[in-house]
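DATA CLASS: polypeptide
GOAL: derive structure tokens

***
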Amino acid sequence: MDGSERPMWRRWVYAAKPASWPKLLVPSLLGQGLGVAATGRLDVAALFLGLLFSVFDLLFIVFLNDWGDRDVDQIKRRLFPDGCSPKTIPDGILPAHHLLFAGLLAGGMACTTAILGAALLPRPGLGWGAAVCLGIFVTYTLPPVRLNYRGGGEVLEMVGVGIALPLLHAFLQAGRLDDPRLLQVLPGFALLSLASAIASGLSDEVSDREGGKRTFVTLLGNRFGRGGCEIAAGMGIVAWMVAAALAPVPTGWPLMVGAALAAYHLRDVRRTSDEAVTNAFRAQSRYKLHLHRAIWRGGASIAGAAVLDALLCSP
């Protein structure tokens, strides 16, 4: 695969991995939706700055993740020359130093956006919150910590994607974090985010193990990896159902909507599970597609329903 044959703009679009963007955009919108629900109004400036931060955060993560994982990606290309999608650095789509510079620039722009939001809205402490979100990724994949290579990366991703990012956006939108909906929604969403984090290691099991990465899948194997995904996702859905049952009527209905939609797609996850064995890359892609639909559609529906409930019930 010769990435140098692609036009430059297509190389950068490929490196940005737009198909993976919902992994951060959904928790961002979930936090924004919960912020709207807390105040009963939509702050358009907060929504715009939040989406801008999320885009820069996404680019920061995808570019530096490719830079940080370039050696393991090279191993996977060697082991499976025709069995996986093109790798940005090993396949010559972009050089490593370009991705490093672009990732650092995107991270700087994300921090600048947060500082701007803290000054304009105002939201004291927003810049520190953004630094925490970016720092979680730095701890995840970059030296010297590289927790994803030492075990625990999935838990760190759960904290970053499932808790820290929605909280940042809820604070950006509402200016406070005392709304009970956060405690109702985020534990379940964090568990679903853990399922996604475990699933991300399925297709890299062999190359990650050879490259020295210690992930849930490399330590316990494909079968336990899939089992962990499905247990975490199921627990997340149950957490939403329990929170909905305990919430004052009628504020629990957005949680029931999200839980029902996630449960519907989890059925397809379990239906495709037996096929998603080690190195069955297409089957693994179908498996992760259904899992992501459960997480992303469940989370997005809660955000939308919470906004609708708040706007309809606001005086």
Q: What stands out?
A: The chain has one domain: 3-313. The two ends are 60 Å apart (CA to CA). The mean pLDDT is 93. Residues 3-313 form one domain.
